[in-house]
Amino acid sequence: MYHSPTYGKIDLERLKKIVSSFMGADKKAKYEIIVGTDSQKIEKNKYDFVSALIIHRISWGGIYFWKRLIQDKKISLKERIYQEATMSLQTSENFVNFFKTNGISKYDIQIHVDIGRNGETRDLITEVVGMIR
User: Fold this and answer.
1) Most buried of 6, 22, 69, 115 (most Cβ within 10 A)?
2) Whole-angstrom distance, CA of residue 53 vs CA of residue 91
3) From the DSSP assignment, how many helices (H) and strands (E) are in the chain?
4) Distance from C-alpha of 39 to C-alpha of 36, rounded to nearest angstrom
């Protein structure tokens, strides 16, 4: 189930219709399609993962949707980063074929991951980027 501040709780099929309608309303506009997942430890062995899908109409605004997964087991930082990347890939996969069949395939989906060159995640850059490519 996805959530939206504008549309409330919605299923995947309704989400696709909303995205198609939003992007179809101004076919001359340029869009960015962005997916990302982040996580936070909320208890000793409990993590909150949130994935977001953002459709940005350049110079106009956008819409966004999110979904949450609570994981009830101890996991390492590496496992968390892999889970975040996997959830982002799954969200993207839900839309790749949909975009192609609805004439939206000219836009690449940007996948943002929470890794960097200077922190604890620096050793994971090559692996995670390889997963996403």
Assistant:
1) 115
2) 8
3) 3, 6
4) 10
